[in-house]
Amino acid sequence: DNTTNLTVPLNSTVNITAFFVLGEGVLQLFVDDLLHNEGMGVLSNLTLFPTLGIFNITASAFATQNFTDGSTTLFVTPQDMLAPTIQPNVCLPDPVTVSQDVTCNATITDNVQVETIIATVTFFNGTQVSPSVVNASSIYSFTANALVTGQASILWTANDSASNSASDTSQGFTVQSSSGSGSGSSSSGNSNPGSDSGGGGCAREIFPK
């Protein structure tokens, strides 16, 4: 009843309906040359499109004594319209000591395929780094050196094979200063109560008689 081509999200179910505008007889409904429905009058079929591609939908009518045979065709194109999902996990250690390494990860998935992942770390002073990201069963991780003390933020960016994009800025970690070492001073005087010092700074020993 509507020969307009359709572009639909992947995994959509489409109600395909065909009927005679003029004429009578037996209708057949095909999806990519596979018969899905057949009968008199109005034909309707709910068809799932779980894969990418261009699908040919054809309604055909047999010839009768009053009408010739005929057909009409439209195309359904399922497309990936969903962006990846990003779920930040943990950074370890957190807090991390300045000049030490910290490892952060996030679970990133897509309904078709994740194409590229970028992690951007912004430190307290504005310095940004984009370390290499590795994937292990949809858990993406990176290791970076903690350059500056203070709070650091992470921007995860994910793109899929259809150029859908997603980002997340909810993850971060704290960089703390390293522990300081203690210091002390020694006395310039002689702490031995049995000693005496002369003007020249040399000790003189006194023996009892």
Helical coverage, percent range: under 10%
Structural class: mainly beta
Find the count of extended strands (DSSP E, 2+ residues): 18
Tell the overall outline: rod-shaped
Q: What is the CA-CA span between the terminal residues?
A: 133 Å
Radius of gyration: 38 Å
Mean pLDDT: 84
Instruction: Identify low-pLDDT runs.
Output: 180-209
Strand sequence of the main sheet, in spatial order? 1-7-6-3-4
Q: How many individual helices?
A: 0
Order of helices and strands, N to C? EEEEEEEEEEEEEEEEEE
Instruction: Profile the largest sheet.
Output: 5 strands, mixed
Tell me which oligomeric state these chains represent: single chain
Structural summary, described in words:
The protein is mainly β and 209 residues long. The protein is 0% helix and 55% strand. The protein is built from no helices and 18 strands. The strands form five sheets. It has a five-stranded mixed beta sheet with strand order 1-7-6-3-4, with no helix packed on it. A hairpin with an 8-residue loop joins β6 and β7 (70-79).
